[in-house]
Amino acid sequence: MMQHIILCGGSGTRLWPLSNQQTPKQLLTLFDGYSLLQLTFRRNRFACDKVMAIVNEQQAGIVAEQLEQAGASAPVCLAEPVGRNTAAAIALAAFVADPDTILLITPADHLIGTPDRYATAIETAGILAAGNHVVTIGLVPTYPETGFGYISYSGHDVLRFVEKPDRVVAEAMLAAGGFLWNSGIFCCKARVLLQELQQHAPAIYEATAIAAAEWKTTGVLRKETMEAIPSDSFDYAVLEKSGIVKVVPSKMDWSDVGSYEALADALSRHYQYRNHQAVFIESDPQKNIVIGKDKLVALVGVENMVVVNTASALLIMKRGRGQDIRQLHQWVRDNRPELL
């Protein structure tokens, strides 16, 4: 059995104001009463007998509570006082885990609609990881997405990684074939992961080793120690430099729920979402999406709009402009931080 490492540090800014600092996207119980975090834990129980979550310290309590509600026995939560990106988060987990344990590392906020295909991919990844490889799950692209990194591959071999492309390049890769979306799901023995980190990102390795040693002694990650860790993604620090990376291609139904359109689509296809106690979501023939629960929102003579009504803020946005929420979120952070 593997150990499940859940990366819970995401802030879900693209779903503001529904997602906020206290209850980010992965903790919203929108999916038949479950959160994305809980669904992530449940779908991996078949392969993992232990779970460890890397969390923002403000959310450590609710993360532990949700995991226990979902059936986790004694989940371990590493509470980060300050985020240092995924390389540090994954390294912390590897230092704390048993060296020969295979770690299954997943984000907390993905939604999978084909659990059988997912399970097959994870089983294959576990076999490759047992052979001392760093394994990533690659998703067969269905449209020319510009917000994901891509992997050029042959069989299980990684030929090269491609940064987030522009539209023209994404369309060319989709037409050519032989490319996968980088899912952000990894599988590797703890000691192999640390060996690769030490070789390719020694500064992160050394600084994270200190933080992990302190945690083992005190049960606390100190802010001063964490701030000394260089901030970098696992992809940049290790994956794109390592010579032992393998990929498992998969055609699973996958979403990172990165927009209100994606959220409404996922809920309409997979869940009984209307009139849910946590939120009401409606999509009408004019392709308007209304999200809220506290008051009636009526739209007349408009189309392709997204309206999100929460207790603290009202968002009105044209569909397809979801990437602009990051800029709006930054403005709110600078001018009205109490609304985050």
UniProtKB/TrEMBL annotation:
Keywords: Nucleotidyltransferase, Transferase. CDD domains: GDP-M1P_Guanylyltransferase. Residues 284-328 form the MannoseP isomerase/GMP-like beta-helix domain. One of its GO terms (molecular function) is mannose-1-phosphate guanylyltransferase (GTP) activity. It holds the Pfam family NTP_transferase. InterPro entries: GMPP_N (IPR049577), ManC/GMP-like_b-helix (IPR054566), Mannose-6P_isomerase_type2 (IPR051161), NTP_transferase_dom (IPR005835), Nucleotide-diphossugar_trans (IPR029044). This is Mannose-1-phosphate guanylyltransferase. It comes from Chitinophaga eiseniae.
